[in-house]
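Quick bug: C-type lectin domain-containing protein output formatted oddly.
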Amino acid sequence: MYTFPKCWTLLLIVVATVTGISAELRGLHCYKYFNVKHSWEKSATLCKRYGSELVTVDSYDENNATYNIATSSEYRTRNNVKYWLGFASLDDLRTNTLESTSGDLFSQYSGFWAINEPNPMAGECVSANLGATEQSWELRSCETLLPFMCKAKACPQQSFHCSNGACINQAYKCDGNDDCGDGSDELDCSANCNIYMASGGDVIESPNFPQKYTSLRSCKWTLEGPQGSNIILQFQEFDTEKNFDTVQILVGSRTEDTAVSLATLSGKSDVPNRTFITASNFMKKYTSLRSCKWTLEGPQGSNIILHSRSLIRRRTLTRCRYWSAVGRKIRPSP
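Here's what came back:
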């Protein structure tokens, strides 16, 4: 049972993403190949979320190294496997320029292109094609679903690699301060009531359960599943002090500053009768008296359709701003 005393703050993060998987160290960088298929933009977003970039290749040796990493995956038995690189063409290559996901510019002539490539008519984003002995580059539609590879700067020994890519001294982990700047160094710190779980069927209980715990304490649970999986979250019982302790559901990231709020719950409600299922990422946050805003953004040229089963303004939520989206414009609801 989830029973929270007055002025108690709980953050429950539920994530089904690509973090928590070991990467391969090559020189001063770490590489990880993911066989889950996404668009180029989605792949770049997933890499950035955990302190890395969609892989860029700067040399002949690195092109061979990434080829070896990719072919060592389960796709090795297949022919003509392709995966995303972190390059996209600019101005249909009229300036002979590629741009990386980090914003750096490269000459197209530094690429390792296949015959008759690059072909701007085929698309704007660069993929690598795994051949029998080497990989070559191609342009293709950015919406194509392909595996991808992430690349991050390696951290020195005795240091901690933050989710935003920064490196801090290992001694700063779990010291109660946000040394990384994104909270990732305080993510798995049971002594501070920040708990990380990565196995199915985990059960979350409040401190001292079934007894009440002390007031004015902040806790966080982070749940993470395998690549491409969904997480189902169900409350067996739900009882918070109404108007003081709330459950805010966030989606899109494992940190508050990059997540989007989905719902806010408080008091004794019908939560046990509801099921929450992740898409690719899910976050839950328990807090009180918080000002909040939802911002929805879709791909260029697309429309956003927002469906709401119910939306009730309570006195405790008058500081929140509810938004609806029509086309590419976002406007306050009446």
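Actually, after a second look the formatting is fine. The longest strand covers residues 29-38. Closing.
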